[in-house]
Structures are given as C-alpha cells and as structure tokens.
Design goal:
It comes from Tumebacillus avium. By secondary structure, the protein is of the alpha/beta class. The chain has four helices and five strands. It has helices at 26-38, 57-72, 84-93, 105-111, and strands spanning 3-9, 12-21, 44-55, 77-80, 100-102. It has a five-stranded mixed sheet.
Length: 115
C-alpha cells in the first residue's frame, strides 16, 4: 500500500511517499503529482522518499516524467531522504546524472530556494 502526502512551501511542491512505488501504484502517483502541478501554484518539486520501502522501474518512470515536466517549465527538482537500496537503483538507472539527492527535506528545500 502506498501513501502520498503533498505540501506546498512557497513555489515548491513537496511530495512524501510511503510504502511501495511499483507498477500497481505508479499511475496513482503520476496522477496526483500532475494534478498538483496543474494547479499552477508551484514551480519546483521535492520528492521525499524517506518512508518508501520499495521502487521498481515503473517508479523510476514516474520520477523521470515529473523531472522532465518540472525542468521544461524552468523549475528544479530534488530527491531527499533516499535509503541505500533506492540510491543504488538511482545509480544503476543513471538518474543521478540529472537528479540531486539531499540527506533531508530541509536541505532539498534550501536548494530550491524555499528555506
């Protein structure tokens, strides 16, 4: 079971994921994040993966898609609180070449200019 919570700080959308991001839950995450971005209130995106226990290639696809949308609109995107298992997945996928990972949500928000 995946839980999603969202928060807005300044012009940054914070998405906190808890549980498993896989082919069963990827579309739900995509739809909810897109709906928030469609509101036009935020420019940047921080994904907090502290409570994410599992992710497969479907999850990588969701993250990459949101990265493209945010950056094409001139925003920045950051990941934070990523466990070692997920960090390895990001490394193997090559996503760390384009996405920065921060130890905490506070540091990720500082990078987007909010905190």
């Amino acid at each position: 079971m995946l839980q999603i919570s969202t928060d807005v700080r300044g012009d940054t959308l914070i998405v906190r994921l808890s549980g498993e991001l896989d082919h069963h839950t990827a579309e739900m995450v995509r739809n909810q994040v897109e709906a928030e971005l469609d509101r036009g209130l935020t420019e940047h995106l921080v994904l907090n993966l502290e409570d994410l226990s599992f992710m497969d290639s479907s999850g990588l696809g969701v993250i990459l898609g949101r990265y493209k949308r945010v950056t094409q609109a001139g925003g920045r995107m950051a990941l934070c609180s990523v466990n070692d298992q997920l960090k390895k997945l990001f490394e193997l996928s090559g996503m760390l070449k384009i996405l920065r990972i921060y130890p905490s949500e506070t540091q990720a928000l500082a990078e987007t200019g909010v905190a």
